[in-house]
Amino acid sequence: MTFTNYKTKGNIIFKYFMILPFSIFTVISVGEEYRGIEWMGVPINIQYVIFAILVFALLVIFTKAIRGIKIDKITTALIARDAAVLLSFINYESTIIEFIYSGYFSMVFGSVVYIVAINSYREGIEKFIHKVFIVMFIAVAFQVVITLVVSIAEGVSSSTLKTRMVIPLGASNSIAMGLSMLGIYVLLQIKNGSVRKILTVAAVVIISLTLSSGAMISLVIVITLYYFDKVRNNYLKVVLVISAILLGIIMIAMPTERSEIMRDDENLFESYRYTTGQLRARQYYMASHGRFDIYRIYLMKVVDKPIVGHGYYKHVSKMGINAHNFIISELYTGGIATCGILIYILVTIFRTLRRYIGKDNVIRGVYYSCIYLVVHSFIEPGLLGYQKGFLFWIIVAIGMGRIRHLLVSSTKNDVEPTHQVESGSRASIPVEP
């Protein structure tokens, strides 16, 4: 595509020195306990070694192919966002090391991942990624089941069971977020309807074992949107839209992990009963279990420095807890300058994917898996982290690369793009003017 003489080698490096290392890195536990080996008496952290290989592969591909890289709208916007957040140094009150470590690295990392992935795309690579993601899902799901079984065998109470779920992709909510995104991407590319339904039920059961109510509600919202795209009855569409809105409100009103209002022995049912009671009494602050208060505190800080933001800090040391909302987090970090660019990027991505959603199963899987991550990131910081960010930008690049390939391969046809979800054909698509 755009790698000229380097595209074949770049594609190989992309698959085997970028996708595979990060996949291994992801399924290795990232808990605080030491995970490594000793070589000649020197402790070696396997996670850091694999991550170093990943970063090295990124740099190799990027530098070797820099002259052949095609700059699209998303690439331009990502570079602009990376530059715009540096303006927050006007208000920054800590060291450049903390700035980079606390978030700027993740931002630049995601941008480079997208640029490398979109320019490394060659037809067939989506099959490789599909297989890798299946293995990742199974590996993480296996650890979820083992952790749950061991915790129950040890007599862990149901009220503290969720806190034991700290394995590959982070804690409970983060694990569920990664599993759900991988699951949606993989399942929507299965052509056999019966097999897809059976595996979907199995995946939902596995995800529910993470005890993440946010993930389950986000999944229901995405499923609702999926069927909204399929039905033609306008009345049913209204019902689906209202259902998605109500689920979104419930999701935002869910308790946070560090809520001071929740008792240590309070279970999920009691939490929701308390929340709905406070909502009926119009006690909205109390109903939020802290989440609305987190938003209020962050937004007050945003108002203080709205244009270029505060910069990247360790949220635990600066604010006590993360923003639990990627838009508010972006506003706090880079102000209107970076948040506006991020919104533009997301709108561009989803508008482009939606135009061709009915033409290819890969594009369909990309569209709904990315919607899921964005929806869940309204209550968790998933989209802005480097692990979920890596998955997001890889998947987006695969979708955009697939569209680019379909456009190039159908220059002589005159078939309009469509967003009809029920069409599963791989019909050709014309080149846009």
Account of the 3D structure:
A two-stranded antiparallel ribbon has the order 1-2. Helix 1 runs antiparallel to helix 2 and helix 14 (326-355) runs antiparallel to helix 15 (361-376). A hairpin with a 2-residue loop joins strand 1 and strand 2 (42-45). It has 16 helices and two strands. The protein is an all-alpha fold and 433 residues long. The model is unreliable at 1-6, 31-35, 258-269 and 421-433 (pLDDT under 50). It has helices at residues 7-27, 46-64, 73-84, 96-120, 125-153, 172-187, 193-208, 213-230, 234-252, 268-280, 284-287, 291-304, 315-318, 326-355, 361-376, 386-409, and strands at 36-39, 42-45. The radius of gyration is 22 Å and the shape is globular. Among the domains are: 1-69; 127-211.
Give the helix tally: 16
Shape: globular
Q: How far apart lie the N and C ends?
A: 19 Å
Spans of 5+ residues with little confidence (pLDDT < 50)?
Answer: 1-6, 31-35, 258-269, 421-433
Oligomer: single chain
Radius of gyration computed on alpha carbons: 22 Å
Average pLDDT works out at 76
- What proportion strand? under 5%
